[in-house]
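Troubleshooting: if your tokenizer reports a length mismatch, compare against these two reference records.
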Amino acid sequence: MCSPGSSVDAGDHENPPAFQLAADRLETIEYVGVTEDLGGLVSAMARDMNFHPPLYFPFVNENPERLDPLRGLTEQELDIVREHNKVDLQLYEFARKLMEWRNFDHAMRHLVRGGVYQVPPGSFEIKMADIMPGSGWYMAESSDGISWRWTGPGRNFTIEVPLRQDVSYRFDMTFSDPRPSGPGNLTVEINDYPIPFELWPEGPFYRCVLVIEQMLLAKSSGFCRIQIDTGETGQLSETDLRLLGISVRRIEFVCLEP
């Protein structure tokens, strides 16, 4: 207990907050939102509770003249702020990904129920000329009966599909990379988990191969979001933005029956 007149805050004597405990508690809350997207949270709650969705959601306590409290701080001062808010920053990033995943899960369930997506019974290939189940893609291009798609202009793109929950899959992607740096900085996440993969050249192309484990699919009701980060993009071309990304020629999901 602090002595009278002490300038030490009582919170300084508490154990430091545990991120995992906070994250576990956050996952038990059915609706999670952030102030910068409060309208999205209210709309989601209205949708799930069968309320009329609000067209306009007023912010009655908003102060348009409020200045950014971090404005004017030096980088050294900002480092001090970050150091004393490590858990808060971790939890905010966790909450952001949790909201993204819940939105993805809701959308996939809606598409499956509506018959737009179906769970393939076995191995399958995504046709590059068809509608791409994901984001971060340009329109398909074709020549001599062969179709491909460029990714971009951002460095991230996704493939989002419903899969079986009782098996694992081998993901096999063939692509070309015209950037001087090549695909050496490529990273892959499945449902926000970093995944190891094999990458090797094959003639003028590259192949990226990885395994989607059954345990991971069982945790997500079979919904699978593969997010690929191509690393630093190439130099911006005034004539062809496609050169910031890679050119994907083939994507196959091979069902690994037990």
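Reference record two:
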Amino acid sequence: MNSRTCIAAVLFATLSGAAAQVASHAPTPLKMVTSSPAAVGDTKFTLGSSVQVTGRPVVNVNGVLLTDRDLLREMYQMFPYARQHNNGFPKGEEEGIRRGALQMIEFEELVYQDASRRKMAIPEARLNEAVGQFRSQFQSEQEYREYLKQEQNGSELQLRKHIRRSLLIESALRAELDEKSKVTQSEAQQYYQTHPKAFQHGEMYGFQSISIVPPANATGDVREKTRQRAEDALKQARATKSYQDFGLLAEKISQDDFRVNMGDHRMMAKADLPPVVLKTIANMKEGQVGGLLQIDSFYTILRLGAHVPPGKVSFAEVEGKLTQDLHKSKYDRLRHNLDSRLRTHAKILEL
């Protein structure tokens, strides 16, 4: 483990990510989804995996055939990073991505068929606007015409039909999921009141850090220079007067992973803090900058931003996040129920 990794481990550098799946029912040009100019028409191209596109049907949904071209678009929506890896999917994960994408295009087709049965319509003005937006993706008229030729049989009427389908799916999902999954303030407040334990917290600390790290395999002289730099950094840190001042200094001279966030570690539970860190900040006042804290071969300077005793987070503090979480939970439940309902009497045959 190198010095910077060690700092991240000791000072709890965390990395989290979220991936939002975007529906691929719009007629996206496949050549804009892949990086291969051979990814249009009937030309077969091989990705950095076993996926190939020929235009062959992959599933029959109530008599409507969906092709491997539709499937690949959805796979790229689910894993867009494939384009950064020679158009391939992670080894061992491709089948799972393919399965999820297949279920998605089946679901979208079922939503479209249901919306059509209910005689939902798209205003002509909205359709014209969407067609114009789609066409603006192309850098030239020639490129647009080539797309029409390769993927729409040269027919603008067919393109309009596909865009209308996309808008109809979006409209149906908005009505069935987006609108029905909205969470009111009173609903969020009721959840807050009926789940009091979920909003209780133990003792918490918020702090900033500046770390000075010697090079790997540093000699005694280099280590001594590192300490001198750390002592100089401490003088500068103690001269700061605010969160902003300390944060700007951290961005400038710190060598730990938190420098990009003004050295800010946000609020952390007392139980989650390393003993060496807790021992230092437990005796500090808010706004105070501590002394040099040596961890292995590197030096860290801590500034205590906040110390919060055990208690309960107020509704005002959690309202936004709580509303968002309740909305997502409600949306996912409604989507699952809609998918189950539409599949109940559907005839779906994977080819």
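Descriptive notes for reference record two:
- The longest helix spans residues 315-344.
- The first strand starts at residue 45 and ends at 46.
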